[in-house]
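hi! just following up on the protien thing from before. the input was this:
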Amino acid sequence: MLKIRLARVGKKKQPTYRLIVNESSRDTYGHALEIVGHYDPFTKVTEVNKDRILYWISKGAQLSPTIHNLLVDQNVIKAEKIKASKGKKKTEPEVLAEKKTATAPVVTPEEKPAEAPAAEAPQAEVVPPAPAEVIPAPAAEEKPAEAPMATPAA
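and the predicted 3d structure came back as:
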């Protein structure tokens, strides 16, 4: 399938992009079928070859979301802009919290079952546990204190 998409060129931290027509499975750094424009993100200058873009679209080439929005801005195609980015990645705690809220059923106040009055509800008697018998610890056997050893006189 043919795609019209961006290929990054330019120096480190100074990107410029080419609008290329290429097979979707091929690398954008490799050989492109045709270069149909240029885009500079710093100056927002976009040069497009409108005739060639419309030709490739008529041949069945698909547009990447970013290219679609660029061509809408340049009045090459008449359409609404589409969301190009997927958004910020969620961290693991955010994903877990989202799963918990998604699985928990939401109950509105109208859907809550009516609570039974406290007088009607049977209450189970709470029996405290029996106190455990205290067994005294055996008395420690006392050993007679040993006298310190005398040192021989020299």
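The radius of gyration is 40 Å.
The beta strands are 2-11, 14-23, 34-40, 45-48, 62-63.
cheers
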